[in-house]
Design brief:
Layout: H1 15-24, H2 27-38, H3 42-51, H4 74-93, H5 104-115, H6 124-130, E1 151-155, H7 159-171, E2 174-178, H8 187-190, H9 222-235, E3 242-243, E4 246-254, E5 259-266, E6 269-275, E7 277-280, E8 285-288, E9 303-305, E10 319-323, H10 327-336, E11 342-347, E12 353-354, H11 365-373, H12 377-391, H13 394-397, H14 401-407, H15 412-428, H16 433-438, E13 451-452, H17 456-460, E14 465-469, E15 472-476, E16 479-482, E17 487-489, E18 492-495, E19 499-501, E20 508-510, H18 517-520, E21 539-541, H19 553-574, E22 576-581, H20 583-597, H21 601-604, H22 627-633, E23 642-646
Parallel strand pairs: 1-2, 1-7, 2-3, 4-20, 7-21, 9-18, 10-11, 10-18, 11-14, 12-13
Antiparallel strand pairs: 4-5, 5-6, 8-19, 15-16, 16-17, 22-23
Helix pairs in contact: 1-4, 1-11, 2-3, 2-4, 6-12, 7-19, 11-12
């Protein structure tokens, strides 16, 4: 395991401040950081046993948010005091850490102690990378520098596009990003609806190679996360590589020249690009889904989609119908409830909502300073937030047949989460069984994406807010009509109805057989490893079918863009002009995933209207695999799964020519 570079800046903290931040810091994190700073691994044996079980409660997703009432033992208190004192002395000394590199055994022991769970062996390498301990993630030793005439086009300058750009730049590839907007950020630039915020802990919803110790909130709002993406863009000087205001219309594979010819429009004029490889980094959620509503164009008031919020519209004092109670719906409802005159929420199905006491809470100043000033604290805190993804997120979505036969439930982990959600719901409406019934789903957690409460249940208690179950069917001049005939007079309509799952079909992308991506995806979209499609050489579809697992988008996009660069490096090393995944390998992958999906919450509960499905209700976005397995699967391409053509002027490279610093 190779380590990230750790710089020790001049210590400007007073002794009082240093004492304050270490006293507030988790003692097991103090110990882990102390061992790395001093290089004294014997400290683990001296203090580790006494500190086991002393982890601070991680008040984030997928954990019980009750306060831990266990008082530490006198032995644990003494150990914590000694560790904190030693850490203060080490920080005051200001010397570079002696052990920035952790061997596998020591990392495993420290990871178990810091997280309070047993990290499986297969999760050690993923945990080490995703926590930010290493910037060396290459799956193969590069044998040749990418030639200057090997061009890569990246479509989209959102989170995935920026990720791809950094990795391409570090690997030495020539690339250009095509971005339809005038700035970076993607969805975080476009989604400006009231209450827009990240619903994944800020520590982990960020790049592992570019951690941010200074988040102001545990769940940052949209503008703060957009600022983070802008800082990363500027740090790596990516703006000079981005053609802003360039809308891609389509791309055609030229098989004779082994190039992609990309058609775009900028300032109303056509612009053509050519590239050896094309990476679509727009993700699956980039076009708002407008429901088919008869007569919606006759409605006299404003109709606003959450993904295209119109800030010129003033909803003050108006009667507003809000359609949809997914992630954006609950955020919008919570944000506008006190501004509007009346808010009527229409939900098609209830959602599982998890407690989240830190939804709007600021990160304590002591925690921010600790992550900023003490080496490795940010990485260990990030690992704590990642722990559930490294252990058994997979068990949350898969049905346990033996358990189901014995109890009638779905699985012990899923049922435990369901009980947590239902208990949380009942605690908010103890005297309103009708509301509890209305808001209780009849399917397991993860059949639809669970929601972290941002104050939605409290919003529903407000006198000007009501909620009913139904689906929007029609509209007339001053009202909307639901499928059951209910007519609701209103002044404005807010649609929180999500996105269309295009998977690149919104572009006219033509592969080597003359078929478009849309034609290839009939009757439904598919992919190999969540991003490759046979017949489309040198083409990566980021966030493609079967790509989303029970992990956050930052994890998914890093793993996919790592694989994309490894694929291109293989081409360079072996002098290849094209690589195309075979139909046989793709079919085997799809059949395996479809078979695994049959026992998942997504398929077992087919009446849940989650965004994982296409219009025919087939699950096409999610993959029911442990993230650590996917991390290993995407380390480097399995060459036997591809057909290749070789450049006439280039033979395979021998030993590495240059030792490169990579991420």
């Amino acid at each position: 395991m190779q380590s990230a570079t750790t710089q020790v800046t001049e210590n400007t903290m007073t002794s009082q401040e240093l004492e304050s931040i270490t006293e507030a810091l988790d003692p097991v994190v103090c110990l882990a950081a102390l061992i790395q700073i001093t290089g004294d691994r014997s400290l683990l044996h001296r203090y580790g046993p006494a500190l086991e079980g002393s982890q601070h409660v991680v008040k984030e997703a997928f954990v019980d948010f009750g306060e831990d009432e266990r008082a530490p033992s006198p032995e644990a208190e003494r150990a914590a005091a000694e560790v904190r004192d030693r850490l203060r002395q080490a920080v005051k000394a200001g010397r570079p850490p002696i052990m920035p590199h952790l061997d596998r055994q020591l990392f495993h022991a420290l990871a178990n102690l810091v997280t309070g769970v047993e990290i499986p062996a297969m999760s050690l390498d993923p945990a080490y990378q995703h926590a930010g301990f290493t910037t060396d993630t290459r799956g193969r030793e590069p044998r040749r520098l990418p030639p200057a005439d090997f061009k890569v086009l990246v479509v989209g300058a959102g989170m995935m596009g920026i990720n791809a750009a950094v990795k391409l730049q570090q690997a030495g590839f020539e690339f250009t990003i095509l971005e339809k907007l005038d700035a970076v950020g993607g969805n975080w630039l476009e989604n400006t609806y009231p209450g827009a915020a990240v619903d994944t802990p800020s520590r982990v919803y960020s790049f592992s190679f570019e951690p941010n110790a200074s988040w102001s909130k545990y769940y940052p709002n949209g503008p703060e996360f957009l600022s983070y993406l802008e800082r990363v863009t500027d740090k790596y000087s990516l703006r000079e590589r981005i053609d802003f205001g360039t809308r891609v219309e389509g791309a055609t594979w030229d098989d004779a020249r082994k190039l992609w010819v990309v058609k775009s429009v900028r300032d109303g004029q056509p612009v053509t690009y050519e590239a050896n490889a094309l990476i679509m980094a727009v993700g699956p959620n980039n076009e708002p889904n407008y429901p088919r509503v008869e007569g919606l164009d006759t409605f006299k008031g404003p109709v606003i989609h959450s993904a295209q919020w119109d800030h010129s519209v003033d909803l003050s004092g108006k009667k507003v119908v809000l359609v949809g109670t997914g992630c954006s719906g609950v955020q919008v409802a919570t944000a506008i409830a006190d501004k509007v005159g009346e808010l009527v929420i229409v939900q098609r199905q209830p959602e599982h909502i998890l407690p989240n006491p830190t939804a709007h809470a600021p990160v304590e100043r002591e925690e921010i300073r600790a992550m900023e000033a003490i080496p490795f604290v940010a990485q260990w805190k990030r690992l704590q937030s990642l722990a559930s993804q490294m252990v058994d997120m997979h068990g949350m979505v898969m049905k346990d047949e033996d358990y189901a036969a014995e109890t009638g439930g779905f699985g012990p982990i899923n049922d435990g989460m369901r009980m947590l959600c239902e208990g949380y719901l009942k605690s908010h409406f103890p005297d309103d069984p009708a509301m509890v019934k209305l808001l209780t789903p009849d399917f397991p957690v993860f059949a639809k994406r669970p929601i972290l409460d941002c104050g939605f249940y409290d919003t529903l208690k407000k006198p000007q807010v009501s909620i009913l179950r139904g689906a929007l069917k029609a509209a007339e001049e001053g009202a909307v009509i639901l499928a059951d005939g209910t007519r609701i007079e209103c002044d404005a309509v807010v649609l929180c109805t999500g996105y269309k799952l295009h998977f690149g079909r919104q572009f006219d992308i033509v592969g080597k057989a003359g078929k478009t991506l849309g034609e290839t995806f009939e009757p439904y979209p598919f992919s190999y490893e969540g991003m490759l499609v046979p017949g489309f050489p040198n083409f990566v579809l980021g966030g493609g079918p079967y790509s989303f697992l029970v992990a956050n988008h930052a994890v998914v996009s890093e793993q996919q863009m790592h694989y994309a660069v490894e694929l291109l490096q293989w081409m360079v090393d072996d002098g290849l002009s094209s690589v195309d995944v075979t139909e046989e390998a793709t079919r085997a992958f799809v059949e395996d995933v479809d078979a695994e999906l049959q026992n998942s919450a997504w398929v077992q509960c087919g009446d849940a209207h989650g965004y994982y499905r296409d219009q025919g209700s087939k699950v096409i976005l999610a993959i029911p695999r442990h993230n650590s397995r996917i991390w290993h699967d995407l380390r480097k391409p399995r060459e036997a799964d591809f057909t290749v053509t070789r450049r006439d002027d280039m033979a395979p490279a021998g030993e590495p020519e240059v030792s490169m610093l990579t991420i």
